[in-house]
Write a structure and sequence with these properties.
Distance between the termini: 10 Å
Oligomer: single chain
Structural class: mainly beta
Number of strands: 10
Low-confidence stretches: none
Shape: globular
Radius of gyration: 17 Å
Order of helices and strands: EEEEEEEEEE
Mean pLDDT: 91
């Protein structure tokens, strides 16, 4: 079946899916030059190696809400769930809408999120669940991989149908 990450939740939607694992959102530090772009859903059961030794490393940080706009307070850590659809084989995140195209099944809807435009580290767009949760004991504002809402900017982006400074939604759909 189709595999997708439900950002901002501990579990999968009740929509013919199963939980592969629940974990913590993570990624590179928001201000590191050369940082990795992707958000990742880290397992709650890490296994480490002692076989690799070097003087230069990439770093993995926890992801945090860096805005109160989503509901949870600034600095709260972000949970995630890796989900598998039991009846579909394709998955698609559609930015700019919270509904699926005809023939596709909505798994969850939310708000488009990414890093702040003026941070040095690159970031990707993710679909953060519309009712996000937090990680227990993840309340310290350590920064790390940060998420912010995404707004439309007219110009090269067609307006209409988009509207300048409007917050964008998203949908995760399967078929």
């Amino acid at each position: 079946g189709a595999i997708f990450v439900r950002w901002g939740k501990h579990g999968c939607p009740d929509n013919d899916t199963e939980l592969v694992y629940s974990g913590f959102a993570g990624g590179s530090y928001y201000d590191h030059q050369g940082a990795a772009v992707d958000y990742v859903c880290l397992t709650r059961d890490p296994v480490f190696t002692s076989k690799l030794h070097d003087t230069q490393y990439g770093y993995m940080y926890g992801a945090e809400y860096n805005s109160n706009a989503f509901g949870p307070a600034d600095g709260n850590d972000i949970p995630c769930a890796v989900c598998r659809s039991l009846s579909t084989s394709s998955v698609l995140m559609i930015p700019g809408t919270n509904v699926c195209v005809t023939g596709w099944k909505l798994q969850y809807k939310g708000n488009l999120a990414t890093g702040y435009y003026d941070f040095r580290a690159a970031s990707q767009y993710i679909c953060l669940d519309e009712s996000p949760e937090t990680v227990i004991n993840g309340r310290v504002n350590d920064n790390g991989k940060l998420v912010h809402p995404v707004i439309a900017v007219c110009g090269a982006l067609e307006c209409p149908p988009y509207e300048n400074d409007k917050t964008l939604t998203c949908a995760v759909c399967t078929k």
